[in-house]
Amino acid sequence: MIYYLSLGSNKGDRGRFLQRAFSGLEQFGNISGRSRIYETEPVGFLEQASFLNAVCVLESNYRPFRLLRKLKQIETRLGRQRNRRWGAREIDIDIIDCNGETVQSRLLIIPHIMMEHRAFVLQPLAEAAPDYINRDGHSAAQLLYALNEKAQTRKLVSINGNK
Fold first, then answer.
1. What's the pLDDT at 163?
2. 7 closest CA partner among 58, 46, 45, 48
3. What is the C-alpha to C-alpha distance for residues 68 and 140, in angstroms, rounded to an integer?
4. What is the pLDDT of residues 86-132, one digit of tens each?
5. Are 78 and 148 in contact (CB under 8 A)?
6. Cα–Cα distance measured from residue 23 to residue 20, given in angstroms and rounded to the nearest whole number
7. Residues in contact with 121: Cβ distance below 8 Å, sequence separation at least 6, in sequence order
């Protein structure tokens, strides 16, 4: 299965948390695409540090709910504590899409319900997976363009050209 994963960190050594999360993902499959790391303003709860965000493409034999459990284990191992919705976090790893599959449950929604409204997901997704097409036939770049046209995005800054 091909998964599109969004990673973010805004607490502690953000870059190190992202790198450790990428390393942890390698045990679940092959990372076949990866964006640069972007610094972004928080969404939701605004009184917190800016985030570092990235997207990767993970080819894995795990089914969605099993992979979700594995992702939560990585988050826990890296010190994530769920104290406040949209609050500061060492690491957050979300499944944003998977092979065009649709999942609707209390624990997991694929595609991610907010992905098309978040520049911090769409810009790195367009970079990591330029061939990505959503269920309506739009690429991540087209979705990002439409979002920017609505003036709902914040400035994204690439960090160190990491790729």
1. 43
2. 58
3. 23
4. 557 789 999 999 987 899 999 999 999 989 988 999 999 999 999 99
5. no
6. 5
7. 6, 53, 55, 96, 112, 114, 115
**Cα Rg of the chain (Å, integer):** 15
Domain ranges of the chain: 2-159
Domain topology for 2-159? Alpha-Beta Plaits (3.30.70)
Low-confidence ranges of the chain (pLDDT < 50): 151-155, 162-163
CA distance 146 to 127: 16
Residue 117 per-residue DSSP state: G
| Alpha-carbon distance values, 39 to 54, 94, 111 (Å) | 9, 17, 23
